[in-house]
Write a structure and sequence with these properties.
Blueprint: H1 4-11, E1 31-34, E2 39-42, E3 45-46, H2 47-53, H3 56-65, H4 71-83, H5 89-93, H6 104-118, H7 128-154, H8 167-176, H9 187-199, H10 207-216, H11 222-233, H12 241-255, H13 259-267, H14 288-304, H15 309-322, H16 325-329, H17 337-347, H18 354-375
Antiparallel strand pairs: 1-2, 2-3
Bound molecules: acetyl coenzyme *A (ACO).
Pathway: Carbohydrate metabolism; tricarboxylic acid cycle; isocitrate from oxaloacetate: step 1/2
GO cellular component, one term: cytoplasm
GO molecular function: citrate synthase activity
């Protein structure tokens, strides 16, 4: 590619690239994507191998520190996260103040912003020790804050983290412990959630990660940058798509209309509707994560003994779209979020919790990118240009 900044400096040229379709904002050694071939690799390892052989925690370590951990490194990392999982008692009160109708993504981004006020000994972006401490604190506490968010949403008392449990077990126990079932000990659930978190762990310069980098480029601290990333993720064209997919499947189910009729409405751009969970800025072929999630959806529903008509509608929609020239010509394939909602629903999560789950999964990617940028002495503050379209000079 062309180094635009050099070109501009030497020629005075400028470029207009709405939505940054063709502009690289950074160099990065974390994640490689080939959208035409449906390839995704973290630090060189294919996502398929990582999903089949490694856990979410392995991948968190890989993204943040650059290499897969050996068993003693993983053990030490796990122990550190357990040690830092408790949240300041005054911070817990915060969760009593929200309206039950509040969207959990708004609660989560606020909670992460507030975290920095309780842990302000780890907010200096120029101090490597503080960066490391805020990294561990965020990784350990975001799942806890997400479980608290769930509890405040359903109006139940908050459950403290238990350092005897792993990150994923703890999360399930803190959310569903009240159901009287030992959710944390259900290997099907823990494995499925672990895999979903792993599949969301990073995806290079997507909207939320670019947001984290842009905010971080002003030397805002990690908490502030991650809180901004959560807000960027909340939109239905990004992380909010998993919730929107379930709304769409429910709508089709309840309307009693055929899948084909819905597809026709999408093609006619009726009310601007899109097939949620379809299409991707980068993948113009199958999203490799979607293939893995689809296989899991069948397995999880079977093992949980859940039969969900929404899964059948999802499969029918996918088949109808893949056979339709509208979607084929535009290279629209299912993305990672097309089937995740069906799995989360089978696990018992309300739809509004789907995007917070995405945030927990994506956190290591955001952190890895923030740290990579922060460690690069050539980083400059992000400051895009614009093409001015307002009035020429005029007088009052
Ligand atoms: N359903 C129907 N048509 C679509 C869809 C869709 N899901 N996505 C794109 N198109 C059409 C557009 O209408 C447009 O057609 P046109 O040329 O006739 O106007 C063409 O495909 C190109 O669409 P763009 O919006 O230019 O594609 P872009 O790369 O900007 O958008 C995006 C990518 C936002 C993911 C888009 O495909 C979309 O809205 N998908 C649905 C939401 C979704 O699932 N988001 C999750 C993304 S993955 C993630 O964040 C984890």
């Amino acid at each position: 590619g062309i180094d635009i900044s050099k070109l501009i400096a030497t020629t005075g040229l400028s470029s207009y690239d709405q939505g940054f379709v063709n502009t690289s904002s950074t160099k990065s050694a974390i994640t490689f994507i080939d959208g035409d071939q449906g390839i995704l690799r973290h630090r060189g390892y294919p996502i398929e191998e990582l999903a089949a052989q490694k856990t979410y925690l392995d991948v968190v370590y890989l993204l943040v520190y650059g290499e897969l951990p050996n068993s003693s490194e993983l053990e030490a990392f796990d122990a550190k996260l357990r040690q830092h999982s408790m949240v300041h008692p005054n911070m817990v009160k915060f969760f009593e103040t929200f309206e039950p109708s509040a969207h959990p993504m708004a609660i989560l981004s606020s909670a992460v912003s507030v975290l920095s006020t309780f842990y302000n000994d780890s907010t200096d972006p120029r101090d490597p020790e503080q960066i490391e401490l805020s990294t561990i604190r965020l990784l350990a506490k975001l799942p806890v804050l997400t479980a608290y968010t769930y509890k405040s949403l359903v109006g139940e008392s908050l459950v403290n983290p238990d350092s005897n449990l792993s990150l994923v077990e703890n999360f399930l126990s803190m959310t569903f412990g009240h159901l009287g079932q030992d959710y944390a000990a259900n290997p099907v659930l823990t494995k499925a959630l672990d895999t979903l978190l792993l599949l969301h762990a990073d995806h290079e310069q997507n909207c939320s990660t670019s947001t984290v980098r842009l905010v971080g480029s002003s030397q805002a601290n990690l908490f502030a940058s991650i809180s901004s990333g959560i807000n960027a993720l909340s939109g239905p064209l990004h992380g909010g798509a998993n919730e929107a997919v379930l709304d769409m499947l429910n709508f089709i189910h309840e309307s009693g209309d055929s899948v084909q009729k819905y597809v026709e409405r999408v093609k006619n751009k009726e009310d601007g509707i899109r097939l949620m969970g379809f299409g991707h800025r980068v993948y113009k072929s199958f999203d490799p994560r979607a293939k893995i999630v689809k296989a899991h959806a069948d397995e999880v529903l079977r093992e949980l003994g859940v039969s969900d008509p929404l899964l059948d509608i999802a499969k029918e929609l996918e088949a109808a779209a893949l056979a339709d020239s509208y979607f084929v010509e535009r290279k629209l394939y299912p993305n990672v979020d097309f089937y995740t909602g069906v799995i989360y629903k089978a696990m018992g999560f309300p739809a509004r919790m789907f995007t917070p789950l995405f945030a927990v999964g994506r956190l290591p990617g955001w952190i890895a990118h923030w740290r990579e940028q922060n460690a690069d002495s050539t980083t400059r503050i992000g400051r895009p240009q614009q093409v001015y379209t307002g009035p020429a000079k005029r007088s009052i």
